[in-house]
Amino acid sequence: MPDRVLVTREIPEAGLRVLDAFDVTVLHERPPGRDELLEAVGGASGVLSTATETMDGEVMDAAGEALRVIANMAVGYDNVDVVAATERGVVVTNTPGVLDETTADVAFMLLLATARRLGEGERLLRAGGWEWWGPKQLMGPDVWGKKLGIVGFGRIGQSVARRAKGFGMDVLYHNRSRREEAERELAASYLDLDELLETADFVSIHTPLTDDTHHLIGETELRRMKPEAVLVNTSRGPVVDEAALAEALADGQIFAAGLDVYEDEPEVHPGLLELENVVLAPHIGSASVETRDRMAVLAAENLAAVLCGEDPKTPVDA
Ligand code: DGY
Predict the structure, then answer these.
(1) Residue 318: what pLDDT?
(2) So what's the pLDDT on residue 317?
């Protein structure tokens, strides 16, 4: 009997093809409800999950003794209780390295769109409100030549830095530990977080969500930023205190923000929805055709490897 595998969402075909040898159940396009997940997971040896499913001890116990691997189709794995998995002998994997450039594109897209007020301009035009070209209309700060502060200087943060170099920007970064090789390669300067927030014209967040990074950017940090500064977040919503951000944007404490992720997806803080100076994207950082194929294939290969008694390519450290 082939091992039972649960795929919690519809994923690209390329990933499903890797799982041909298993008895695969694919749920549907929308995220499963909690009860549905608990029921569907019963008897699975492997689960291919996405960031929308909370994979905790209860889900693992509902899967039962057979469960050997949770392959998360995301680089972030804050939705998986890795400690609970380790206690149960379940391997957890993620999909690092295949989405860096694609996510960096979206961070840069938000940075440009936010600074140059693209969302606001498009809303004006579509509503029939664009009456003339104006010498003072929709002005925003230049991006080229400015200081970009990158918080979290891993693979994605460094890919953003490479883009910034093409725009003649000065790259500043903050990271838990210094990345001296990347610093040299990208001529980036290390600053502590407070200094970075006080100095940067643009701040782009690329840290994973952990207990230490929850609300890393809150009221105090937003107050440190320049009034003309722009904040971009493509990492995880809870890294930024959304209520504090909505207030800072409404009060003009900072110029604008570009967000791809939210504290309680798919909910967005109502204060943000009312503001013109925020560009809101629906968590599309990795949503290119090629990258979603790569993520699905890597997650499926990791899952298949564990079920075949081999080492997965990208396990998560417990
Ligand atoms: C990731 O890979 O972490 C993306 O945010 C999709 O969940």
Answers:
(1) 74
(2) 85
DSSP-based three-state secondary structure for 167:
coil
Amino acid occupying residue 261:
V
The pLDDT value recorded for residue 110 is 98
- Dist. CA 223 → ligand 1 center (Å): 29
What's the predicted TM-score (pTM) here?
A: 0.97
* Annotation marks residue 215 as catalytic: no
| pLDDT (0 to 100) of residue 40 | 98
CA distances (Å), origin 310, targets 14, 67, 82, 111, 303: 21, 15, 20, 42, 10
pLDDT at 165: 98
Burial 272-292 (b: 16+ CB within 10 A, else e): beebebbbebebebbbbeebb
Distances, alpha carbon 37 to alpha carbons 22, 45, 56, 60, 220, in Å: 19, 14, 11, 11, 39
Q: Ligand 1 pocket, 74 CB below 6 A?
A: yes
| Residue 265 is among the residues annotated as catalytic for this protein | yes
* Ligand 1 proximity of 73 Cβ (cutoff 6 Å): no
Low-confidence ranges of the chain (pLDDT < 50): none
β-bridge partners, 172: 149, 189
Atom of ligand 1 nearest to the CA of 51: 7
Of 153, 49, 147, 159, the C-alpha closest to 103 is 159
| Atom of ligand 1 lying closest to residue 261 CA | 5
* Catalytic hit among 283, 292, 294, 301: 283
Q: What pLDDT does 69 receive? A: 99
**Does 32 sit in the ligand 1 pocket, CB within 6 Å?**
no
Ligand 1 centroid vs 286 CA: distance in angstroms? 7
The active-site residue, picked from 163, 174, 179, 236, is 236
**Helix ranges restricted to H, 64-147:** 82-87, 100-115, 118-126
- The ligand 1 atom nearest the CA atom of 235: 5
